[in-house]
C-alpha cells in the first residue's frame, strides 16, 4: 500500500508542478511546449508501476512468483494434514496404476493365448519390487496356466513366484 501512496504523491506533485509552470510562463508560444513536456512526464509517472511488465522476462518473473506462492501451504492448513493428503494421493495413484496394468495385462494375455480375457489383479505395481499378480483364467485355458504365469512374469520382469494363475 505504501508503494501506491508514493506513486500517487509523485503524480500529484507532477500535476502541481505542471500547473505552476503553466502559470509562470509569460508567452502562449512556450505554453504549448511546456504542456506537452509535462503531459509526457505525467504519463510516464502514471505508467511507472506497469513498466516492469513490459520487459521481456515478465512472464518468467510472474511464474516464479506464482510458484513461490503455491509452494507455501495455505493458511490454516498444517503440514501434517498436507502430508496426510499427499499419502492419500499417492495411494490412489498406486491403485490406479495397478488397475491400468491389470487391464492391459488382461488384454495382452487374451491376445497372446487366445480365449476370453482373464481377470487380472495387480498389487504393488507402483513400487516395482513388491509387485504381485493374481490371474483368473477361463477353465478352458487351465492347461496353459504355467505358460501364462511365465509369460506374465517375463513381461513384468518379476520373479515367477509373484504370479499366481487360477482356473475358474
Automatic annotation (TrEMBL):
Keywords: Membrane, Transmembrane, Transmembrane helix. The chain crosses the membrane at residues 7-27, 33-51. It comes from Alicyclobacillus macrosporangiidus. This is Stage III sporulation protein AF. It comes from the Bacteria. InterPro entries: Spore_III_AF. Pfam families: Spore_III_AF.
